[in-house]
Amino acid sequence: MNAPKTSRYIEIQGVAQTFKTKKGPFQALRDINLTIGKGEFVALIGHSGCGKSTLLNLIAGLTAPSAGVLLCDNREVAGPGPERAVVFQNHSLLPWLTCWENVHLGVERVFGAANKSTGVAAESRAQLRQRTDAALALVGLTHAAQKRPGEISGGMKQRVGIARALAMEPKVLLMDEPFGALDALTRAKLQDELLEIVAKTQATVVMVTHDVDEAVLLSDKIVMMTNGPAATIGEVLPVHLPRPRNRVELAENPAYLHCRKAVIDFLYARQAHVEKAA
Ligand SMILES: Nc1ncnc2c1ncn2[C@@H]1O[C@H](COP(=O)(O)OP(=O)(O)OP(=O)(O)O)[C@@H](O)[C@H]1O
């Protein structure tokens, strides 16, 4: 069963992003308007360099927009916060710490000190350890807790990155091509795991991807971006496929094939990428 989803959780209103460069201002994004419901899974797709990461960074609060406003749960996004956790493609783990310690670092930061704004007290060391154990268990990595990143596979590293983000119990999970560097089989396994985790945690997810099948398999809606510079949202495609989703069953599902074709048509017919001359 699909969980009920409230219609306005993240609101992006008239957002533009212009970067200062040596050659003068560069407008990456213009006129971005998007509403994301609580518990929704949204994929951002578009050609390389169109501004997907720029938009994700704005939602994360890692950068501020040049124009417009972003709201999360009716509050303006004014910087990064533990309610919006980010998972990057390169997992960004600290190589000298074990998997457990990498996850625990974030847990201590978020729950190890009293939260003045909510009045919630700091948790005990045992509670913090339990959170870390639970996050690693959620991604199936209990057995690798004491290994260092250099001793585990790319897929396992990516799982640690996801565990680290999930351990903060974020309301919003922001993922920038989290499976981009993985082989097809590992990628499929992690997609399936992510579907299960999101069903359990009910997090709102925004994921940047280049992969059409990944976008259709995972999402409630696919946000398709036009080519840059000054990219914007070209079309938003709702994905009306029941959950839980099974990739094998979906392969011949007409609604799945329809969505897939709509995205391919947008990317390769209407937004055919024009390579700039060097
Ligand atoms: N800090 C910055 N300063 C100047 N230009 C930037 C900056 N960050 C991004 N850009 C430019 O903004 C545009 C959008 O970049 P962005 O990384 O968001 O694209 P993307 O769609 O995520 O690309 P890819 O799919 O290749 O990762 C690109 O032309 C990029 O060069």
UniProtKB/TrEMBL annotation:
One of its GO terms (molecular function) is ATP hydrolysis activity. It is a peripheral membrane protein. It is found in: Cell membrane. Signal peptide: none annotated. It holds the Pfam family ABC_tran. The keyword Cell membrane applies. GO terms for cellular component: plasma membrane. Its main location: membrane. The keyword Zinc does not apply. SUPFAM superfamilies: P-loop containing nucleoside triphosphate hydrolases. Keywords: ATP-binding, Cell membrane, Membrane, Nucleotide-binding, Transport. Residues 10-252 form the ABC transporter domain. PANTHER family: NITRATE ABC TRANSPORTER ATP-BINDING PROTEIN, TAURINE IMPORT ATP-BINDING PROTEIN-RELATED. Belongs to the ABC transporter superfamily. This is Nitrate/nitrite transport system ATP-binding protein.
